[in-house]
Fold:
Amino acid sequence: MPRTLYDKLWDSHIVYAEDDGPTLLYIDRHLLHEVSSAQPFQGIRQAGRTPWRADANIAMADHNVPTVNRKNGVTDPISLVQIEMLTRNCEENDILLFDMNDRRQGIVHVVGPELGLTLPGMTLVCGDSHTSTHGALGALAFGIGVSEVEAVLTTQCLLTTRLKTMLVQIDGSLQPGVTPKDLTLSVVRKLSIGGGKGYAIEFGGEAVRELSMEGRMTLTNMTIEAGARSGLIGVDATTIDYIDGRLYAPKGSQWDMAVKAWKEFRTDEGAVFDATVALDAGTVQPMITWGTVPDMSVNIGDRLPDPGDEPDKQRRSLFERAYEYMGLKPNTPVTEIKLDKVFLGSCTNGRIEDLRAAAKIVKGRHIAANIKLAMVVPGSTMVKKQAEEEGLDHVFREAGFEWRDSGCSMCLAMNNDRLEPGERCASTSNRNFEGRQGQGGRTHLVSPAMAAAAAVEGHFVDVREMEGKSGS
Amino acid sequence: MDPEITAIVAPIDRIDVDTDAILPKQFLRSIEKTGYGTYLFDEWRYLDHGELGETKVRPLNPDFVLNQPRYADAEILLCRRNFGCGSAREHAVWALHENGFQALIAPSFGDIFANNCYKNGVLPINLSEEDVDRLFVAVALHPGYKLTIDLPRQTIQTPDEKVLPFVIDTFRKRCLIENLNEISYALAHSQKIREFESRRRAEAPWLFNSFSE
Ligand code: SF4
Structure:
């Protein structure tokens, strides 16, 4: 019987399944970071246990690390304890750690794929909801809570139940100047924030095949913003080419054996999904979110929606609250929204391709006078290095951007990078929830190119009007 | 939770409440499993900005529903659809639990959040939009409104004796009632895990490489 990619991944990891009960699923790779690991390590210590398979775990500090003056260490005493605790736990348990000064350090979801730690056909979990990112490589990857982190550390397994499958079929091609982030935001809008709940979503169709790995990861990264724990993309030549030569990718005869196995990790012709949603990539426009939930978004050429047009009563009241929180008025043209800060980074858009796209826009230009801070936070230390080799740091610096060290930074504002109350930010991250980038801060999610264009103009602008024209 | 509870219901009348709202990020810097209760819904609950470990008395937001004395002893939280979406932070559930909440009722919950609830003995109950709507009206009308949740029978009983059945996965129900620990369950199958692992090692040896450079 033809099977979906999800079916294949699931079936190949069943350790034990009770009739009518949960499945004990084997986990090949477990990524750890400082924010969701202290309690699980404490748990195993208290229970007198040790990790089941230490070498299946890789840890790094990302959420809470400073993005400036890193050589001076962590100045915030509470964060320092947490980051030191990660180091101690990894030492005690013999787990490989990339500390914040390691050349391999970065945001877990950027580092996994870029080092070849994330591979097709595997199960991968992490105590972080954006673990869905890794599904772009044909892996079953999903976020787990702290209790489950302890379970995986202790047993290398998770007790879990099978998800339903959804195919998001994206045909057609993206128009010039429209990016994977715009496609992603339009998928989230189409499904709505809760629309993918209970599903593993596979992305298929011409437009997905045409995406680079970076673009695919932007798409699977935000699957959780549509409520789905896992996003998946079948293995093809793009996947294999991306992995080839990565630091920890299999080599030699192992590589040949692996590639042969990986090619199976795509949905068979004729396999049936529990749900299917279709989207035409050709209709996607550059987008921004205007509200406090990732599916509250509009095209750049539009005006902000009128809550009165919203048929659902509860959604209408959420719109009204969102307008109040965001300090915006219905029917305002998007291009009239002025900004205070610009954040380029995160596990959604902190990869080299993202920085290149933004640099292309800002080259020869300068950020507008009303922009108090524009910062680039590469998704990993290796992305940073690569960008510097290409001279992108100069482009950004000359344009007035700050060039920072890698980490989650203002995506969730756990370190010192944050918005002040009332400040408005164009951000390439994934969540625009109230307070996400700092209490009272106002977040607009956009693509790297759109964020760059907004930094230059001081307000939102259709990036397609700037592309091709050279900077002043 | 206890298999059967009768408790006051507090309402959070808002769809898509995310875990960032339930417990803001600055509190995730703690390495403890407890101490999150006072920070539940921090940005809505207080008028000032909260930081971890501060001991000063903070100004409450009088407009926030959970600050009303009538809900002070609530153990059941009535929510709207997609409650607990967003971040995987289990801390959000710990904060609810520390505030005495044993059960949550909503048309739907974030997947990871619901999972985290079960792991901490908090019961997330799905009811239809209509039933939830009716409960919101009843809670608003009757101060001290209580519901009885009977987990073994899978029912919610209203003060006017209406019985609302709910669905729960059999295994999860067993875990809650018997306080069954999933780690012990998995370890009881250690032999099977080892067998699986050796098969996998043969099939996909690259997954067992060591990471020395
Ligand atoms: S960059 Fe943002 S979304 Fe990604 S892991 Fe870090 S905090 Fe989470």
In short: Chain A touches chain B through 80 residues (CB under 8 Å). The longest helix of chain A spans residues 77-93.
